[in-house]
User: Fold this.
Amino acid sequence: MKYFLSAITLFVLCFSFNVSANELKNNASPYLAMHGDDPVNWMPWGKAALDKAKKENKILFVSIGYFSCHWCHVMQRESYKSQMIADILNKDYISVKVDRELNPVLDKRLIEFVQMTNGTAGWPLNVFLTPDAYPLVGATYMPRDNFATVLKRLQQRWKKDSKALQDMAKNRNDTLSNMLETQERTSATKNIAKSAKSLVKVIMEGADTLQGGFGNRKFPSTPQLAALLTINEKQKDKDIDDFLQLTLNQMARKGLHDDISGGFYRYTVDPAWETPHFEKMLYTNALMPILYLEAAERYNNAEYRQVALETLHFTIESMRGKNNAYISSLSAVDDKNEEGGFYLWTREELSKILNKKELDLAFSVWNLNQANELPAGNLPRRDDALEVIAKRLKKPTKVFETELQQLRNKLKAYRNKHRGLPRDTKLLASQNGMLLAAFAKGVSYDPSLQAYGDKLAVFLESLWNGKVLRRSAADASIGTLDSYAATSWGLLLWGKSTGDKKAIETGRAIAKKAWQIFYKKGIWIENTQSLLPKGTKLSHLQDGAIPSAEYFLLEASRLSDDADLRKNIDAVINNVTRSIEVDPYTYASIIAFAVRYR
Assistant:
């Protein structure tokens, strides 16, 4: 009997071990929390994980992703829910899960490493680090069997000669840092604005002048498009204007844009803007309205203005979270685990929802009368402006637009009732700062935005205690440079647009603190709490999908009417390094700023 009870106890203990939550259970980050029931013994990024790796002489496995990332979900389902993979990781590695939006500097450093060593990088980002946090090797998505093979082989090498791997990782880190630092040397050129000509040349060399945008995967590329718009305002090159308007039209009408409820997806997977990667990010839907409003002014284009305002109202309707702030993203995968399923329609489904007149209109405008292009159906998208379609259908434009809006409302109501989208409910200072800037740009065209902007400004002010800025509502961690720069920019632009004196005062104070903390002797420090080995000393910061934090802080300082902050601007834009001359494309935002500021 005693043996029988002991066996039951052992079974219960083993079973409990297999299903028990790891350290990520109930984390404030939805992305980390969704890994809380994985059998992998995940730890959050921090000193405790590094200390454990050193104590046990184990490799750190750092997996970075974000909530709305499709392939992050796939790798979780295939690998991190697998007991076989968990057994390997738990025995031989210290496993760390990272939300890239809460650790943007760590993500940037490791993306840079994988990009330079593999040629490409993305998410999920999986990097193996020595116990001293030097990157060893990295990859993106790996199928389960491949992943298991990598884990076993790397552990065999580590067991055989860990010192050789540690030395290799440290030497590689030094080599990569030295390579980058050679480009950080000061150039003979005296002002960043002088690089505008080479920037335009590089951008236009990579431009797809037939379909708009850049490359085979089409991202919004807001830093580069906004820079072109600024620089070409003076020179008025027709080819550049044609390219910009082609790109803006394609992004607004085709697969990058949700033509039912508004809002932009993160990118399209093809060069013709047909099929999106279906996640919707807050930063995309904050930056795109700013781009479209500036283009509307430049080209006197009412369609661009409408797209911008509709995007802001989509954000208010679909991405508002607690505390009058806005969430980070909407998932690419719907509540039925179908990528894009929330946005796609089959002919059969439409025939049940719509009457014949509505169905004919849907088929005519969006070309939905075809076999399913994706498993869950077809994506509504159009090729032409609404007035062109109205003319083709022989309808007065106003009548057509009214009928189309009624159709949109019916489809939107249906999918909101019958379909669901997981939401990343983080309320980030940086992305909400960008959105407040977009409200500031749009409020003169749409006064209804005033109330939402006022409340968002109050939220951002609540993250600032007069000494430090928190990076998010649910995270007490001190903000990174991204947090300070975008928040100060948003508050100052809102204050200048609406006369909100408190927003101006708070934005100015945050900007001043950012210069004190993050800019030392001409070098940017992006995070005060980095645990990685010393990286490259950067005189300027590169754009990514989002303009650099350097650009946001320059804009905030320009708006501040503060003499000391303007001195900082002069110091930055008169410090030209070889990196800007070698690769102006990735410094588009600060080059355009210098052109405008000069």
Q: What stands out?
A: The radius of gyration is 25 Å. Confidence is low (pLDDT under 50) at residues 1-19. DSSP finds 24 helices and 14 strands in the chain.
